[in-house]
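Please fill in the sequence for the structure shown.

STRUCTURE ENCODING:
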């Protein structure tokens, strides 16, 4: 019982870290940012990636070993939607990660990255979309926990 609680706690904390990393990226991305801000965005993106892997790991541990069992979850419509949304968020997050990784060469030379207004708008839209889809994940989790989707 303690292990199940700790795994659930890890799952929740990882999700909170994932959301915080996205919100930080959203707040920091701008046309005029210095080297320190660009590095902070890159770190936030790394935290986001690690947090996403932990959410997935803790989630599957809960599904397989600690909660109602995989048969219950994989027959639940809202679990399947939740999993699909998680995959969608992961795929959508590839573009920002790619953009941030392109900054590394300049940042090593202490040169701030140049980013157009169009790219800022695109990144912010993508991050907003990720956050909306994560809201959908949370809604599905709530519905699933109350027995809907079977």
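FILLED IN BY: designer on duty
SEQUENCE:
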């Amino acid at each position: 019982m303690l292990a199940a609680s700790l795994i659930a706690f890890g799952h929740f904390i990882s999700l909170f870290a994932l959301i915080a990393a996205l919100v930080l990226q959203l707040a920091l991305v701008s046309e005029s940012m210095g080297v320190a801000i660009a590095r902070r965005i890159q770190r936030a993106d790394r935290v986001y990636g690690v947090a996403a892997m932990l959410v997935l790991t803790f989630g599957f541990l809960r599904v397989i070993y600690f909660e109602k069992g995989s048969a219950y979850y994989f027959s639940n419509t809202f679990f399947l939607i939740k999993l699909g949304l998680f995959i969608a968020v992961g795929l959508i997050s590839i573009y920002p990660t790619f953009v941030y990784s392109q900054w590394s060469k300049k940042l090593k030379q202490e040169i701030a990255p140049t980013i157009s207004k169009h790219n800022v708008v695109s990144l912010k839209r993508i991050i907003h979309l990720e956050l909306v889809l994560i809201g959908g994940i949370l809604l599905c989790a709530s519905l699933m926990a109350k027995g809907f989707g079977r």
